[in-house]
Amino acid sequence: MSALAKTDYARWSLSEAVVADLAGKGLHLFEERLDGRACAALLAEIRARRRFDESLFLTEAEYAAGSAERPGANLLDRLDAARLAFVERAPQVVEALWSLLGPDYRLLERRLVCVMPQRCTPAWIRRRAESGRIGDLSAFVRPELRDLDYLGGADFAQDPTADARVVTLHVPLHAVTEAHAPVQVLEGSHRLGFSAFPHDLKRAGQDSWRYRNAVHGEMYVTERALTGEAGAAALWHACTLTGVRAEAAEHERISLRYRFARGEARHAGLDEVNASLAGPL
Predict the structure, then answer these.
(1) Domains of the chain
(2) Whole-structure pTM value
(3) CA–CA separation, 116 vs 187, rounded Å?
(4) Residue 251: closest CA among 128, 46, 114, 48
(5) DSSP letters of the chain?
């Protein structure tokens, strides 16, 4: 077999695996990691611009006085576009998106996301969370630093676009363990289609949940933590339930989050995935 034929075969195998994983689990984990050195270089540049500690946040008095949002601010837009080529031009990522969304797939959004451990969150903010988890911390961050997303945890939810033509790509910029509040994925939860938040979930075991979507049925799903080395990328369906438990985190987690949409090609693998779902799209 020629080298070209081997390459074609490898890509076709990846294409089939991505579609099969999205159909069966709502999640694809890339076997080949993205460039770890590029992850480290980007992380170093971000850390050089920002301290991820209590200095990020407004005081309680400043918050009470009100502070302007910074719409459209995105730290990634201030970086050299070539710094993100290790993700956006990575052969395994391009092949996966091509197979799922068609050759004219569209980039909807790219953001940096930082999950903050509670020990780095001011006490006055933690007090506000006593009656319920504060997931999005961005409103408490100083306006000039709101150019990335800050989370203090997140209940299980689906993609906010509520569009089954969209997929999310997640890329950690450093090694992630349970101490970094990894993304938690409920594998297979996408099969019941979109459902209203808060979702009808009941824990059924240490890593198992009973998930119900009204008249569209119920199922038992397994919770999986996305731990691993820098560049251990994951791709998931818009209907897949994901969350973050940051209460016991010891370190911040910094990652890239992309959202891509299906193009206008006549056929794409995501069509097969969506055709297999039982609930609304």
Answers:
(1) 3-275 (2.60.120.620)
(2) 0.91
(3) 25
(4) 114
(5) --HHHHHHHHHHHHHHHHHHHHHHTSEEE-SS---HHHHHHHHHHHHHH---SGGGBPPHHHHHH-----TT--GGGGS-GGGGHHHHT-HHHHHHHHHHH-TT-EEEEEEEEEEPPGGGS-HHHHHHGGGS---B-GGGB-GGG-SSEEES-EEEE--TT--TTEEEEEEESS-B-GGG--EEEEETGGGG---PSSPEEEEEETTEEEEE-GGG-EEEEEEEE--BSTT--EEEETTSEEEE--TT--S-EEEEEEEEE--S-S--HHHHHHHT-SS--
In sequence order, the 6+-apart residues with CB closer than 8 A to the CB of 217 are 192, 278, 279
Q: Which amino acid is at 245?
A: R
What are the tokens at 102? 């068609």
Residue-level pLDDT, tens digit, the chain, 281 residues: 223 333 343 444 678 899 999 999 999 999 999 999 999 999 999 999 999 999 999 999 999 888 666 656 899 999 888 999 999 999 999 999 999 999 999 999 999 999 998 888 898 988 887 655 678 899 899 999 999 999 988 889 999 887 999 999 999 999 999 999 999 999 999 999 888 888 888 998 888 889 988 777 888 999 999 999 999 999 999 999 999 988 778 999 999 999 999 999 888 999 999 999 887 77
Residue with tokens 């969350």: 243
